[in-house]
């Protein structure tokens, strides 16, 4: 996943290779207007904030889900330590592929791959919104796509996807966007997929504790600096990679409208990586049961400050910037200062969350207090809801 904030480049779409300061025919590229620059960077900032904010909110519901198919993917400290190495190998591999093989054929394969992923991600993103528009008498049938390996006792589920008629409608709408992206590579279609990938990443990728988050952000802090300042690998891949792995916005939108082609771009890594840490802090806020979201809002403001500083420095020095260079210290430092001021550093770093709910009896709450089975048949819905609320979300400070 690319993680860099890059200068604008020319092209018919976000996937085009960057043009030099002078165009191929020798004519100079028209300078962007101050209004166009402000609109582009402001839009990139807004597009980065939306999936972080709503993805964090949805991550709370995802963590509380009792459906095994909706369980989030938990990142452990070992995963976090290995991630920069894996990301570096992947990035270098893509760079070599673009240097050795034809960029056209590579991007054709990648476009098909992200076409499928983008449709699924966008469908999952818009599903809660679309459900509000369906009439009450909508014929909503249930479906299940099951793919197994082996037979009998050795049967193993490979794919177990449950969906309904409403999901099919969302998939159809997402497919229309996917075809538009596949045929035109339009920057709006690119951004719709990019926003969906980002929101799904923040919602479904969960850090198990704050220490793991610090390890992940610290490792990618070094990774980002090396691959942006040390080499031209990341910027080259970001501008050559024909896939919605970045958010883009044209600086010449006011002059050319929707056909604008002078893009500034922000890698999805700069959204998802800090985003999953911010979402973790929201779940930590909830575990404190103080009805405040202090750490979430602090880290959210820290992200705005860090990305704004990145944009400012990039604009001043006219060079692509490793956004995590500014985002990591801000997103970790600001909440840590708040924890120090409130005397909650121990609670913050002892907070642990798990999603392994299969090991828990269905009649027990997370705190270990059993619910009386004798009352289950006579409980009213309101009483049941109260009992489920008593079985609070898995994450909580140890000893709390």
TrEMBL record:
Which BP terms does GO give this entry?
membrane protein proteolysis; signal peptide processing
Instruction: List the SMART domains.
Output: PSN
Quick one: a GO cellular component term?
Answer: cytoplasmic side of endoplasmic reticulum membrane
Q: Which GO terms describe its molecular function?
A: aspartic endopeptidase activity, intramembrane cleaving
Q: What is its main location?
A: endoplasmic reticulum
- Pfam families cross-referenced by the UniProt entry: Peptidase_A22B
Look up the signal peptide feature and give its range.
Answer: none
Q: Where in the cell is it found?
A: Endoplasmic reticulum membrane; Membrane
Alphabetical keyword list: Endoplasmic reticulum, Hydrolase, Membrane, Transmembrane, Transmembrane helix
Return the annotated region ranges for Disordered: 1-31, 352-400
Gene3D superfamilies attached here? Presenilin
Q: State which residue ranges cross the membrane.
A: 38-60, 80-98, 105-126, 204-229, 263-282, 294-317, 323-341
**Its topology with respect to the membrane?**
Multi-pass membrane protein
Report which superkingdom the organism of origin falls in.
Answer: Eukaryota
The biased composition feature labelled Low complexity covers: 10-26
Q: Where is the composition biased (Basic and acidic residues)?
A: 354-367
Its family remark reads:
Belongs to the peptidase A22B family.
Q: Sorted alphabetically, which PANTHER family does this protein's record hold?
A: MINOR HISTOCOMPATIBILITY ANTIGEN H13 (PTHR12174:SF23), SIGNAL PEPTIDE PEPTIDASE (PTHR12174)
Protein name according to UniProt: Histocompatibility minor 13
Q: Its encoding gene is what? A: LOC114046875
């Amino acid at each position: 996943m690319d993680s860099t904030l890059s200068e604008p480049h020319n092209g018919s779409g976000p996937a085009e290779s960057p043009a030099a300061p002078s165009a191929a025919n020798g004519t100079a590229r028209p300078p962007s207007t101050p209004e166009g620059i402000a609109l582009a960077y402001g839009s990139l900032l807004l597009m980065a904030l939306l999936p972080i904010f709503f993805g964090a909110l949805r991550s709370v519901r995802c963590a509380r889900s009792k459906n095994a198919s909706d369980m989030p993917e938990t990142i452990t400290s070992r995963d976090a330590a290995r991630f920069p190495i894996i990301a570096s190998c992947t990035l270098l591999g893509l760079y070599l592929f673009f240097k050795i093989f034809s960029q056209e054929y590579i991007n054709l394969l990648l476009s098909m791959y992200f076409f499928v992923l983008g449709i699924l991600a966008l469908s999952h993103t818009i599903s809660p919104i679309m459900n509000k528009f369906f009439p009450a008498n909508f014929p909503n049938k249930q479906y299940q796509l099951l793919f197994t390996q082996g037979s009998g006792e050795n049967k193993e589920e490979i794919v177990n996807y449950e969906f309904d008629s409403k999901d099919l409608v969302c998939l159809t709408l997402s497919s229309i966007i996917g075809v538009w992206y596949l045929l035109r590579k339009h920057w709006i279609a690119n951004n719709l997929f990019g926003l969906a990938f980002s929101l799904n990443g923040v919602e479904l990728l969960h850090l198990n504790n704050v220490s793991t988050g610090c390890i992940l952000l610290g490792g990618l802090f070094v990774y980002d600096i090396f691959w942006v300042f040390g080499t031209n690998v990341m910027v080259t891949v970001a501008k050559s990679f024909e896939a919605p792995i970045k958010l883009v916005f044209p600086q010449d939108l006011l002059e050319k409208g929707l056909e604008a082609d002078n893009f500034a771009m922000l890698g999805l890594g700069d959204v998802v990586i800090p985003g999953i840490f911010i979402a973790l802090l929201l779940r930590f806020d909830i575990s404190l049961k103080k009805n405040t979201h202090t750490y979430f809002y602090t880290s959210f403001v820290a992200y705005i400050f860090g990305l704004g500083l990145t944009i400012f420095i990039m604009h001043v020095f006219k060079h692509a910037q490793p956004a995590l260079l500014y985002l990591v210290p801000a997103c970790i430092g600001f909440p840590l200062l708040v924890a120090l001021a409130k005397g909650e550093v121990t609670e913050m770093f002892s907070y642990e969350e798990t999603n392994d709910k299969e090991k828990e009896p269905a009649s027990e709450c997370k705190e270990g207090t059993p619910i009386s089975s004798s009352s289950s048949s006579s409980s009213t819905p309101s009483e049941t809801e109260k009992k489920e609320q008593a079985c609070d979300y898995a994450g909580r400070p140890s000893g709390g």
